Amino acid sequence: MELKGKTVLVTGATAGIGRETAKMFAEKGCNLILTGRRENRLAELKSELENAGRIKVSIHSFDISDRAACEKFVSGIPAEFRNIDILVNNAGVGRGMDKLHEGNLDDWEEMIDTNVKGLLYITRMIVPGMVKQNSGHIINVGSIAGQEVYPGGNIYCASKHAVHAISQALRMELVDTPLRVTEIAPGMVETEFSVVRFHGDRERADNVYKGLDPLTGADIADLIVFAASRPPHVQINEVIVMPTAQATATIAHRKN
Ligand code: 8X3
């Protein structure tokens, strides 16, 4: 499917997978609606992308876990961006690796509010427009943590299992429309993810990827753009992707 001229909404575009996805769709000539919490990063990305190509970028900084802020964002999307062709539900967060019975409730709420409720708010507000225009593609960034569970992953895994369930339900419910639903479920991707998960402990974050070649945000963006560019009759339901040195959520091969 030709991507040039399409309008793509990417949530969590200030870093990692979201940022690389925005860049890759921009290279294909798509106009972008980008959201994230850090306004200066969005502004920098907008000028970088607009200067590089003949595309338009609309930026919106707010917290996706805030329902009223999501409503305000959606009602404030400029008219020329209103026909959204592709929604990339990327915004997500991992917080803490405590055992459940020792867990931090603030961490839990942040994960559930962002990964589940934030994704639901945006999906509920954007998909009706896609149904009305009779076209659209929803691409959810899940995780191997949505397919498997590991110790310390408890609530993060639960939130990503929810993304998996929501993606499947949406696909079933939209089967009588031309809309497509794709879930991309990555294993280890080196982004700010682990630094955030360990509350800024960079050494602990670096250890997650030590001794192996992790995936990059660009590797995932590549798959998102691939799924979006398939012909209209081809729906990529799910992609599980890991570094070659990772086999499951808990089995990885590290040198030294
Ligand atoms: C992050 C991947 O393996 O840390 O979504 O859960 S993992």
Q: Please tell me how large the radius of gyration is.
A: 18 Å
CATH superfamily descriptor: NAD(P)-binding Rossmann-like Domain
The CATH class is Alpha Beta
In helices, the fraction of residues equals 40-55%
Oligomer: single chain
Total individual domains = 1
Provide structural commentary.
The chain has 256 residues and is α/β, with parallel strands linked by helices. The chain has a single domain, classed as Rossmann fold, CATH 3.40.50.720. The chain is 42% helix and 14% strand. It contains eight helices and seven strands. The protein has a seven-stranded parallel β-sheet, sandwiched between helices. Helix 1 packs parallel to helix 2 (39-52), helix 1 crosses helix 8 (217-228) and helix 3 runs parallel beside helix 4 (105-133). The longest helix has 29 residues, at 105-133. The protein is globular. The protein starts with 6 loop residues before the first strand and ends in a 15-residue tail after the last strand. The model has no long low-confidence stretch (mean pLDDT 97). 2-hydroxyethylsulfonic acid (8X3) binds next to loops.
